């Protein structure tokens, strides 16, 4: 199978189950999330943990979206929540209205999908922070559920479910 025999790399000699366990442990420790030098995150980490069966449309640049979220720090302390305010976020994605990390984290999301976003400081509030709410150089964690996505280019489908016999109007 191999021209000069199998490679002698020690990981290739491990049984498949042990190799899989090593990979799971490495991911659990956060390896692969940091920069190559082992420093801070370079980009948003997206963990998709509820993906709907049907996804006719994903979020794209310029879409109007509505979503709920909880924002926490690494220690789990909540700094903001649309649920607590009882107000969902309704905004256009990719036009500079959100922190860059949230813009990137929403891209490609489906309605009813849930994601956990880990936003490094340079894609959040940076070295300045947000007075009284976000300290400087804070990594932010968001639990997001997308409720709606719309774009003016989308077609609107309307159908009449029930029309009383005496009503002449049609939709």
Automatic annotation (TrEMBL):
Residue span, PPIase FKBP-type domain: 62-150
Keywords: Calcium, Endoplasmic reticulum, Glycoprotein, Isomerase, Metal-binding, Repeat, Rotamase, Signal
Pfam families for this protein: FKBP_C (PF00254)
The enzyme's E.C. designation: 5.2.1.8
Listed PROSITE patterns: FKBP_PPIASE (PS50059)
GO molecular function: metal ion binding; peptidyl-prolyl cis-trans isomerase activity
Single GO cellular component term: endoplasmic reticulum
Enzyme class, broadest EC rank: isomerase
Domain of life where this protein originates: Eukaryota
Signal sequence extent: 1-26
Subcellular location: Endoplasmic reticulum
Catalytic activities: [protein]-peptidylproline (omega=180) = [protein]-peptidylproline (omega=0)
PANTHER family: PEPTIDYL-PROLYL CIS-TRANS ISOMERASE FKBP10, PEPTIDYLPROLYL ISOMERASE
Function: PPIases accelerate the folding of proteins during protein synthesis.
Name of this protein: peptidylprolyl isomerase
Organism whose genome encodes this protein: Pan troglodytes (Chimpanzee)
